[in-house]
Every structure is written in C-alpha cells, then in structure tokens.
Amino acid sequence: MTKQDTTKTPSASDLISQKIASLADWRSATLTRMRELIQQEDPEVIEEMKWGDIPVWSHDGIVCTGESYKKVVKLTFAKGASLQDPGSLFNSSLDGKVRRAIDIHEGEEIDAAAFKALIREAIALNSAGKLAAKSKSVKKVKD
Questions:
Q1: Which CATH class is domain 12-142?
Q2: Nearest to 46, CA basis, from 9, 11, 94, 1
Q3: DSSP conformation letters of 93-140
Q4: How far is the CA of 58 from the CAs of 61, 78, 109, in angstroms?
Q5: Most buried residue, 9, 32, 56, 141, by CB count within 10 Å?
C-alpha cells in the first residue's frame, strides 16, 4: 500500500490571488478591481497563470492578461485590434496588428461599463472563432 500525496497544488485562481496580494500597493487594488469586473461580466471565465506569473482570463481563448509593472498595470487583450473601443480605453500597443492594451497608472480609474463591454466583445469574438473552426471541421468530415 502506498501513501497518498496529500499536498494540494494551488489552483490558478489561488495563484492569481497570491500574485495580486504580493504586489501590496496600488497595483494590487487595481488588479483586484479589474479581476472583479471580468468575473462580473463573465462568471464562467477561466483563470490561468501563464508565462511564469502572468494572470490570464480565458473564454474560448485568451480574453486578456493582467500584467503588473512598477508604474503600470497592463491589461492586454489578445485580439484587441479586432475589437471596437467606443470608450477609448485602449491606450497602449495601438500599432500592433493583433493585440491592444490598457495601461492603468496609479490613481487612474477605468470606466467599468466600457471595460465590461470590451470583455463581452472579446468573448464574443473568441466564441465566434471557435464556432467557425468547429463548422470547418464538421464540413471536412461530411465531404
């Protein structure tokens, strides 16, 4: 009989919480608020840690990442260049062909409704891409 390993690997959500807590300054509060908005807009969002210690929120693909730097919290939308931005939240990586980002500096507030609209649109774009890919594979099987 072997002894079972009782140590539990922390979930990605736990790791994200640890990462946010480790910031221990305005970046922690900012990233916490943005995480809450993402989860409010999509309770089904999947939280992951990628590339070492970068929080990632996904739904049928990456929606956005939450990076923290000394002077900025950066929310990078994987397909941001394809999203409408009527709230003009994107203020970074504007020349990129695929991604767009929102840089939040200390003391700045983000329009919650406009941010949630971007989250909703990013999820819809990801889901549309997943449906299109599924349709192609079904068509190939039928041919």
A1: alpha beta
A2: 11
A3: STT-SS-EEEEE-TT----HHHHHHHHHHHHHHHHHHHHHHHHHHHHH
A4: 5, 10, 23
A5: 56
Residue of 36, 102, 52 lying closest to 75 (CA atoms): 102
d(CA 124, CA 62): 12
**How many percent of the chain have pLDDT more than 70?**
86
Q: Which of 27, 20, 37 is nearest to 89 (CA)?
A: 37
What pLDDT is attached to residue 141? Answer: 47
pLDDT per residue as tens digits for the range 22-58: 998 999 999 999 999 999 999 999 999 999 899 999 9
Distance, in Å, from the CA atom of 127 to the CA atom of 123, rounded to the nearest integer, reads 6
Work out the mean pLDDT of the chain and round it to a whole number: 89
Q: CB count, 10 Å around CB of 61?
A: 14
Rounded Cα–Cα distance for residues 46 and 56 (Å)? 8
Distances (CA, A) of 61 to 64, 79, 92, 104, 140: 9, 10, 21, 23, 23
Helix and strand counts by DSSP (H, E) for the chain = 3, 5
